[in-house]
Task: structure prediction
Amino acid sequence: MLSCGVDVGSVQTKAVIVDGNYIVQGRGLVHSGANLARAAKHALQEALREADREEFDITFVMGTGYGRFLIPFAHSSATEPVCSGRGAIYRFPGTRTILDIGGQDTTAIRIDSRGSVIDFGMNDKCGAGTGRFLESAADLLGLTIDQLSRASVEASPMADLSNVCSVLAEAEIISHLEQGKPVEEIIAGIFDGLADREVSLLSRIGIEDEVTLTGGVSQSRAMVKAIENKLGRRVNAGVDGVFICALGAAIIGLEKAANGGCST
Result:
């Protein structure tokens, strides 16, 4: 039996295929673009190619994410916190707190030992703590998003970027550039400010060990380091963090299929 989880985000769409033993067989990652249904199909096709399978081999498709209701071939859907909880507990069994940083929003999630959601909260300001803001910041600094994400966050002194609004935060970056501040200090200030906002969001739901970062921004070395500095502890993060929500969806789909498509 094979199950596929498809996570349709505002920026990227991910698909993960797992077999009946919960082993990942294939993954797909594409840009979402304007046509979310097409992005979901393309992500599924990428995962099928990696798994060396055909679409008819998939028993159950579980949708999640921003565009979960726009996946025409999905059998069911679940919210991102629910799927992130299941995916995180599978990947990092000690996880009790999740910080999911996506393209347009950030979610803090507290889970139990089974990956079930106890509490969650989302950013209530415009997207200054998200992937979209990092892309804009990189453009302003003349860097690629990869260069920004790999940057050091140890510069001292660091530029002050304290605004919670993405538009005003971008204005702060421009002001620092006009003042001749070194780019290294501005980058350090960007990630320090972002980490402040993310940790504040985590604090609203209660921070319990272990903390796991998910979503596309979890792949940013600088973001991970800045959050660890604020928390004073190591956090779980990895290159597969972007797939954790889709992985959780696939696991839930597998269990639904085993129960005849009914809720577990």
User: Anything to note?
Assistant: The CA atoms of residues 99 and 108 lie 5 Å apart. The mean pLDDT is 91.
